[in-house]
Amino acid sequence: MQLVRPYPCLMAARDPRGAAARGLQGITPTNSNTRISASRLHATGNAPVVTTGATNNLGLNSERLREAMIKRLREQGITDERILVAMQVVPRHLFVDEALASRAYDDAALPIGHGQTISQPWVVARMIASVCEQQVPKRVLEVGTGCGYQAAVMAQIFPQVYSVERIRALYDMAKDRLRTLKLTKVRLAHSDGSDGWAAAAPFDAIIVAAAGIKIPHALLLQLSEGGVLIAPEGGVSQRLVRIERTGVESFQRHELEEVRFVPLRAGVQS
Ligand code: SAH
Asked: How many CA atoms lie within 13 A of 198 on its CB side?
């Protein structure tokens, strides 16, 4: 455990042509937003758990595929029943392109277009579990909505969910999907999440789904006292970092598993 002061500078994380971008070479939509483990380092791909054939059939099989995913998450150390129940309920295959739907429940991240990914199921569960360690937060911000899957899972657990996405097309897609699933309580914004969501702050928890060289200071300042942020941090090598706000200017930092995420980028893309 380390006691840290807020980060003084955000520029490295916000410059896509700088060290962050150079350090993130080799990260692609198929290998990012995942945990790095010995088996993953040698993995060439993930076979579907069950051959489902046409996507139309997936509706029938998806419950069984989700059960297999939950069993695997338990084996991978996820024990929080609230999260397991939430992930059993949310139809992950509806958040990816139809052509990839049969792989939606694999132990993998998948491309969602625009060079981005839906996070690996373990990553989604681990990040949510990490902010629920002491108590279930009420007001939660996600940075990096992507396809909206993690926001949908969060909406099963947290009373108030806010999520921001910088790519307009993904923001629109997530909005549609969440509306279709009647998850209208999730508040979405098309903006640069490095700035957080000042008008809705403070948050009891902030979950960041893209990696910056440094965790944006503005996000730490939008945590309530006792609030928790979890984010991937780094360039070539990244780790999940959990930071708890223990006072106005005091933060406790823990480094967790090694991961690989898509980069946190500056500005918005319309
Ligand atoms: N939450 C997703 C994972 C999305 S991938 C899930 O449900 O699986 C990470 C997302 O972060 C991408 O869509 C990317 O566009 C977005 N992103 C990157 N930098 C951002 C920023 N500064 N503000 C908001 N979103 C950002």
From this structure: 5
